[in-house]
Amino acid sequence: MSLEYVAFDLETTGLDIKQDTIIEIGAVRFTRDEVLGTFETLVRPQREVPEVVQQLTGIREEELRTAPPLESVAGGFERFIEGSILVGQNIVRFDAPILDREGIRRPERLYDTADLSYILMPSLGAWSLAKLAERFGVVFDTQHRALSDADAARGVFLALSELAIELPNDVLGQIAQWLTPTALPWSGFFRDAFDRAASLPPVKRPVLRPPENVDLRPLKPSADPAPVDPQTALAVLGSAAQRPDLFPGYERRPQQEAMTEAVAAAFNDGTRLMVEAGTGVGKSLAYLIPAACHSLANQGRVVVSTSTINLQEQLTKKDLPAVKSLSPDSGLRSCQLKGRRNYLCLKRFNALRTSAALSDDEAYLASKILVWLGETDTGDRGELRISPQEDALWSRLSADGASCTSDNSPFVVDGSCFMLRARKEAEASHIVVVNHALLLADIGTGGRVIPPYEHVVIDEAHNLEAEATRQFGFTCRERELHQLFDASEGIVSALGKALRTAPVLLEAGREMEEEATALREAAKSARPRLQQLSDLLKAFLAQQAAPNADRDSRLHVTKATRVQPDWSDVEIAWENCRLVLSDVAAHLGRLHESLLSAEELGMLNQEIIIATVGQSLEAANGFLSGLAAALAEDDPSRVVWLEIDRGDGGIIVSWVPLEVDGLLQSGLYEDRRSVVLTGATLRTQDSFAFLQRRVGLRDCETLALGSPFDFEKAALVLIPRDMPDPGSPDYVDALAHAVIGLARASQGRALVLFTSHATLRASHRLVADALKSDGIEALGQGIDGSPRQLVRALRGKTKTVVLGTSSFWEGVDLPGDALSLLVMARLPFAVPTDPVFAARSEAYEDPFNEYALPQAVVRFKQGFGRLIRTTADRGVLVVLDPRIVTKQYGPEFLRSLPGCTVRQAAMREMPGHVGQWLARATAQ
After folding, report:
1. Would you say 542 and 553 are in contact if contact means Cβ atoms under 8 Å apart?
2. CATH number of the domain bearing residue 735
């Protein structure tokens, strides 16, 4: 008898499963061969339907007033779904909990198409119902109506069912074996698929995709590098005009040519160069082409470092392939290199595969990885969807060097080890793309991560100081210490189970078990010492905090702080904690050494246990040295602070170097023949001096290249004459009122940049409520979604306003109609009480003009850069901070902009200016 399924969907008043109510139910009952019936009804909600939901679904509130209440339709729906397997998109986390909350009886088995697609299509990249329907060719004309969504989920489910039986038999069997015993509500899907596949011809395919047969011979740099004529690089650049397929609309740009020549000269002469290239210059080609020419001529390596993922993807997926196509016979090789924890360790995963039993989380992640192994060439976790809950497990399966035992791995011998392949590919590449974090982490390892290189290009160089500050600093969250103790205690049971599987229980095994038991006791005794230290630090923080300080404030631990009477109690508590933490680290160290030297035991999960112990040991030693530097040492070269974790209320202890210029000079610049720093926002007051000092590259050549865009016609800058000062009690109301009028004039397509989460939250409700009636959706960062989700909303719906903070000031690319209005709530000065800012300010005779102002101007330019991204873009920037015209320093911000049209107007007049400017853009 065929199994019967019901695909269903609920439309609701919102996304809160505890409060929002059902407004529509749609369902389709079916077998694999036919549709048996449908169920569809509107439901009168128990609360008001937000305008954004009405816009999204097309269901108007007047329709719902005459709809039956839920209690009238619940019985019919229960009868419709009885005896079936429920199917739908995200039903495990959303629809089913709402049914349960409303007391609607339902079948237990839930085949969630989202969860199933994460396993069966692990590297798809986007798993929404619309994307899945598109991928499988399922008709999905009407989205966000319950019956249509349910029918689309039916089509996707049937396609996923076919995809499952196309898996290699051993892969499908392994997944079924892992998932069937779990409590996951869709686990039976793979047992059903395995049973169906048994009657079909077997599918045989290697579990692991074989390495491609590519030339991985390392580069052999010339002992005496030869210069490359800059005209060679310019000729390659000029050939782009003959390739409209790669460079649509390509035009010759003098600024791009000037940068190409300058970068080529820097490589030839072994000099340091800093280049500011405005939006539209095409700076990536201007450094990639000379880098390629020089590297090919001398078989040397050029490392290109970026700050944002967007730029890395642009370089590796678009720009570098295009450069290779311009010289197809050159043999140019490039790759992207990441840190070890990004790569799967096949030896550790193989150990997990052979485990007797897996937890639900382990079984789910292992299933995704097993399917993905047949698709991936890189083993890079960036190709997978890994949730925060799965991150710790991934770390145990990654090629983390702290406890890597890959030297004797069969996967190293046969060349399939992903980390080894990544390293060999980098050794054989002329251009290696990394991020700033890896570039700087490589300094700490003595160059063991990135293969040797003599030339480096650092794009988005305005972020180099901030990333160096993070990489060379230390942070310890209280919960991380508890996680260390949890892991230490858990090692005992894991090791005990593993030792019982060993063929012969050698003396070494008994000694390890004793060591693990001692570790558990040490971890237990460490907890009360940690609690005492935490309590004292929190009390000290509360005592020293300013009277009006908010919960997010940080306490800068200075020399004056350490002579306070209560700080001596902190030092004593730390010494007590240090002793027990040292004991934990010592037991971990001895246990790790024993495990590494006991291959002959043949224990189950030995690789996983080694990874767990090794990572715990690394963490314990890091906490010991880092906390000692923060709490017991008074080093003027460090900035130390305390704060409360907003997530769980625990204490956070942090320190960073006071300055990073010397670290960058000795660790990065001195060992390189040439160094190029570039970006769109490197200068302040028409000078590179500020950045040169901050990143330690004072003695370098500089080049400033303006944008080829006509900003006078493209961008209007509006400044209100009558906006209250940001410190005024009327400021938030005036800000919200201004944003409402401006957003109506632009019909959404707006981004509002804040420097404070508190101001954003206070403004959000006022703006969102007022814009509902206009059909404009106002979304707040941290309120309505993550930055990535909000960017997606801006790109997908024109009538959207996003209110964002720090992550929206840069790295967000919204060309065309996605963004027409940019509003800055206030000038982006750093918080003066921030410990790092305060400590670094002390190095200047005039801290405001020499440090605070240049830093804010760079940030201001970064924010403006979100608005005009292509030659066709037109938009409006509104600065709702009167200091830009009332303060002596205000003109510095306006002078930093690239020749825009600037107007002042009364607040009530600004929407008219916005509407006229954008209407003119539409007409053109």
Report:
1. no
2. 3.40.50.300
